[in-house]
Prior knowledge:
globular, 306 residues, mainly alpha
Amino acid sequence: MDHQPNPKITGALAVAGSAMLWGIDGILLTPQLYNLNTAFVVFVIHLFPFLLMNVFFFRQYRLLRTMSRSDFLYFTLIALFGGALGTLAIVKSLFLLHFNNLSVVVLLQKLQPVFAVLLARMILKERIKRHFVLWASVALVGGYFLTFGWALPDFSTEGITTVYAALLSLLAAFSFGSSTVFSKKILGNYSFYASTFFRYFFTTVIMLVIVLATGHIGDFSQITPRNWLFIALIGLTTGSGAIFLYYYGLRHVKASVSTFLELMYPITAVVLDYAVNKTVYSPVQWIAAVVMLFAIIMLNTRPKKS
C-alpha cells in the first residue's frame, strides 16, 4: 500500500532546509568571495540564478504587460530593500569581520521582525500592541549584549570594525524586514514562481546600474576559479534554491511553526562558526543570544486576550 508523503512534514523539512542553507551561506560560502568588490558580488550572485531561471520561467515576462504601476513599484521596493540594500549590507558586514564572529552577524539579522512590524505600522497602518513593544525591547537589548558583551562599544581603530559590522547587520535586518512588508502588498496576486523571478529580475537590474555607476562591471576578470565555484554553489543552493524551498514550505506550514523552523538558520551558523572558525562565545553572549531568539519567537506569537 502506497503512502503519500505528509505535506506538513515535507513543508516543515523544506523550511528547515532553506534556513540551514542560509546558515551555511553566511559562514562557509559568501565570505569566500571577500577578494571581490561587495557590490559586484551582490550583482553576480543575483545575475546567474536569474539567468538560470530564464530557462524555466521565461514565460513570466508576459506578466509585465499586465502589471499595474503599484505592483511594479512594490516589486522594485522588494528588490531594492530585500535584494540590493539588504544583501549589500550583510555581505559587507561578513567581509569586514573576515571570518571572525560571523555568527553574530547572522544572529543580528533575526531582528528583522522588529523592523517589519514598525514599517507595517507606517505603511500598512497596522496597530502596534504592548506585546510587541515588550518583546521588541528585549530582543534589541539581547542583540546589544550579543555583540558587545558587558563592554561598551569600542570606537578605536580595531574595535570600530565590529561596530560597523553590527550596524550593517541591523541595516540588513531592517531591509529584509521592509521587503517582507512590501511583499504582503502584492504576493496575493502572483505565484511564488513569478514573485521569485521578478525579485531576481529587478534586483539584477538595480545592481547592474550600481556596478556600472561605480565602475566595477569589468571585475569579471578578477573572478578566480575558486570564486566561480562558490558563486555557482550560492546561485544553485543558498540563493534561488533556498528561496524556492522556503516558499514551497510556507504553503504547507503555519507561520507560527515556520518561526521555530527558521531557528535552524542561526543554529546552523553558530555550529559551523565554532567548527570551522573556532569562534567561542562568552557566557553573557550565549545568554544574550538565547534571550534574543526567545524574544523573536514571542514577537511571532499572538498575545492572549485579557
